[in-house]
């Protein structure tokens, strides 16, 4: 075996079982036990990193189930790079098709919510527009303008009440009403971190569609038209949510009629 | 030649749970070590705190993900990310490990061992040259803690490290706990190991705790950075300072089961006392 083949055999053995040809290159006694130290390091450290990223999922399934699931996920989807901000982001997709979590159909979306929070947390810092800055424009100018969302904004839709599930599983949660949640209700979520505090909002479908249109850089009037088809959509409260909670980074005034 | 520009004092690892405490108390301490992999996001709180702490203390960036021993060369994405963090914070020192962790697009998140052969030497020196060229600065390389030995080695670890230093001009980060762990696990004399190293190249010392396992009657030490420095490692640290005959930067490493900041500062003060004692004996304090 040249060094490259040896490294390959070492990698395969770490993710599976110790290969005979590789173990013949070890000069130490207790080859299996010593090799297992490296194997434990890999799965223990990555398992911990995954648990840090998905505390709510871990709480929902319990520690033992989480550790077992993490082991299977990490063998099938080992990380590709060392920067932890990119680690474990396909875990929601894994949970979506993992046979042992099919009885908890909301679990994958809850994991997706935790990824979205992580992305918002590490997004580039950017100064959000203030209400005063927005009010310098005339209503006519704003209608034709494109509002550019803050770099930390994340949007999430689920068929399940993932925001309530997430909230109920926070350490600070005072809610004792877990069993009263009807999980089979759709939720539309917006996440933003204008400075260092991350905020998450459960909104109506129209407001979500309005933000979705803004994200695609539609003009404000086109975004409002998209959203007005939804029952109960209130344009002024959607706009005030965007302005007051730092969802906006820039205004592009589109000239002409 | 030493490549260290860190102050020749004791530092500790910077942990997120201590950010606020450090900024409020501003403890007397030489410097902080960070893992650059934790600061490769674009923004947010980690950068806010690190920026503030870097205004008061020198930083050392101790990478864990470069995989210098990879047969496929260095992952350019990772090297570019490191270059960005280095440019942003201008650390006094950058260090990495004699190890690999990346193979065919898989990142294994552990410092894996390599056989010490002419072939692996050529690969790791080429990789270190590449990293130093891109970062435009020399780096320090840390000796690993070993659980396995290999039949096909062409040389022992001190000679392998000496060759690396000679060929690449990098410095050495001498982890005294790793020497102790490897010496116990592999059955060699730790003092002899240290004597064989090119000590002029040492730019930093690491001290850490380890745990003991028993494998069929034999002792296997595990380098887990999760407890106080043991008496044996303190003794080997003193031996190292005697042989080094000069002050250097010293780090207290404690990365798992992280204790209160005061506990780390206490370990740091013990290391600092020994550093001063040994160097006043030699008249270079």
Ordered list of secondary-structure elements with their pairings:
The complex is a heterodimer of chains A (257) and B (285).
Chain A: H1 3-15, H2 20-23, H3 31-53, H4 55-61, H5 63-76, H6 91-97, H7 107-122, H8 131-134, H9 139-144, E1 146-149, E2 154-158, H10 162-168, E3 187-192, E4 199-203, H11 205-215, H12 220-228, H13 235-244, E5 248-252
Antiparallel strand pairs in A: 1-5, 2-3, 3-4
Helix pairs in contact in A: 3-5, 4-5, 4-7, 6-7, 7-10, 11-12
Chain B: E1 10-13, H1 19-25, E2 31-34, H2 45-54, E3 59-62, H3 76-89, E4 93-97, E5 100-103, E6 106-112, H4 118-135, E7 140-142, H5 157-168, E8 171-175, H6 176-186, H7 190-196, E9 202-208, E10 211-215, E11 218-222, H8 231-244, E12 249-253, H9 261-281
Parallel strand pairs in B: 1-2, 1-12, 2-3, 3-4, 4-7, 7-8, 8-9, 9-12
Antiparallel strand pairs in B: 5-6, 10-11
Structure summary:
The complex is a heterodimer of chains A (257) and B (285). Chain A is mainly α.
Order of helices and strands of chain B, N to C?
Answer: EHEHEHEEEHEHEHHEEEHEH
Order of strands across the widest beta sheet of chain B? 1-2-3-4-7-8-9-12
**Strand count of chain A:** 5
Main beta sheet of chain B: 8 strands, parallel, barrel
**Helix fraction of chain B?**
40-55%
User: Strand count, sense and closure of the main sheet of chain A?
Assistant: 3 strands, antiparallel
Chains forming the largest contact: A-B, 46 and 55 residues
Q: N-to-C SSE series of chain A?
A: HHHHHHHHHEEHEEHHHE
The general outline of chain B is: globular
Uncertain regions of chain B: pLDDT < 50 for 5+ in a row? Answer: none
Describe the structure.
The complex is a heterodimer of chains A (257) and B (285). By secondary structure, chain A is mostly helical. Chain A folds into two domains: 1-104, no CATH class; 126-257, no CATH class. Chain A contains 13 helices and five strands. Chain A has helices at 3-15, 20-23, 31-53, 55-61, 63-76, 91-97, 107-122, 131-134, 139-144, 162-168, 205-215, 220-228, 235-244; strands at residues 146-149, 154-158, 187-192, 199-203, 248-252. The radius of gyration of chain A is 24 Å and the shape is elongated. Chain B is of the alpha/beta class and 285 residues long. Chain B has a single domain, classed as TIM Barrel, CATH 3.20.20.150. Helices cover 40% and strands 20% of the residues of chain B. Chain B is built from nine helices and twelve strands. Chain B has helices spanning 19-25, 45-54, 76-89, 118-135, 157-168, 176-186, 190-196, 231-244, 261-281; strands at residues 10-13, 31-34, 59-62, 93-97, 100-103, 106-112, 140-142, 171-175, 202-208, 211-215, 218-222, 249-253. Chain B has an eight-stranded parallel barrel with strand order 1-2-3-4-7-8-9-12. Chain B is globular. The mean pLDDT of chain B is 95.
């Amino acid at each position: 075996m040249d060094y490259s083949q040896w490294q390959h055999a070492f990698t395969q053995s770490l993710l599976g079982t110790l290969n005979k040809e590789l173990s013949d290159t070890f000069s130490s006694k207790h080859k299996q036990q010593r090799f297992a130290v490296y194997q434990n390091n890999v799965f223990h450290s990555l398992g911990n990193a995954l648990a840090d990223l998905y505390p709510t999922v871990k709480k929902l399934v319990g520690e033992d189930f989480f550790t077992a699931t993490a082991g299977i996920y990490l063998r099938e989807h080992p990380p590709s790079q060392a920067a932890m901000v990119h680690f474990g982001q396909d875990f929601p997709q894994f949970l979506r098709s993992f046979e042992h979590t099919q009885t908890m159909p909301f679990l994958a979306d809850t994991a997706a919510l935790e990824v979205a929070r992580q992305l918002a947390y590490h997004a580039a810092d950017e100064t959000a527009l203030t209400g005063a800055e927005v009010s310098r424009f005339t209503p006519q100018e704003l209608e034709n303008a494109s509002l550019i969302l803050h770099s930390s904004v994340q949007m999430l839709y689920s068929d399940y009440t993932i925001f309530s599930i997430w909230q109920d599983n926070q350490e600070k949660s005072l809610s004792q009403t877990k069993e009263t949640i009807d999980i089979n209700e759709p939720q539309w979520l917006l996440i933003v971190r204008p400075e260092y505090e991350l905020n998450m909002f459960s909104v109506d479908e129209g407001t979500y569609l309005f933000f979705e249109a803004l994200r695609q850089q539609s003009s404000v009037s086109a975004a409002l038209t998209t959203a007005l088809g939804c029952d109960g959509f209130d344009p002024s409260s959607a706009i005030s949510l965007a302005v007051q909670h730092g969802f906006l980074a820039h205004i592009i005034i589109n000239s002409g009629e | 030649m030493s490549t260290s520009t860190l102050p020749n004092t004791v530092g500790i690892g910077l942990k997120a749970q201590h950010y606020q405490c450090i900024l409020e108390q501003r403890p007397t301490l030489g410097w902080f070590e960070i893992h650059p992999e934790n600061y490769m996001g674009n923004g947010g709180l980690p950068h806010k705190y690190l920026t503030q702490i870097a205004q008061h203390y020198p930083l050392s960036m101790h990478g864990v993900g470069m995989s210098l021993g990879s047969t496929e060369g260095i992952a350019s994405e990772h090297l570019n990310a490191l270059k960005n963090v280095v440019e942003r914070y201008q650390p006094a020192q950058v260090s990495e490990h004699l190890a690999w962790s990346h193979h065919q697009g898989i990142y294994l998140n552990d410092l894996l061992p390599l056989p010490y052969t002419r072939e692996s030497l050529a690969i790791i020196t080429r990789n270190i040259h590449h990293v130093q060229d891109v970062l435009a600065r020399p780096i320090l390389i840390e000796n690993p803690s070993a659980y396995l030995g290999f039949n096909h080695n062409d040389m022992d670890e001190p000679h392998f490290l000496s060759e690396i230093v000679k060929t690449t001009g990098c410095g050495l980060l001498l982890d005294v706990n790793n020497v102790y762990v490897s010496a116990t696990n592999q059955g060699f004399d730790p003092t002899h190991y240290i004597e064989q190293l090119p000590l002029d190249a040492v730019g930093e010392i690491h001290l850490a705790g380890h745990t003991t396992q028993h494998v069929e009657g034999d002792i296997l030490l595990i380098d887990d950075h999760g407890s106080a420095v043991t008496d044996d490692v303190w003794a080997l640290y003193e031996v190292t300072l005697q042989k080094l005959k000069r002050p250097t930067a010293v780090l207290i490493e404690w990365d798992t089961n992280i204790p209160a900041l005061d506990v780390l500062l206490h370990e740091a003060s013990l290391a600092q006392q020994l550093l001063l004692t040994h160097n006043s004996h030699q008249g270079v304090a």
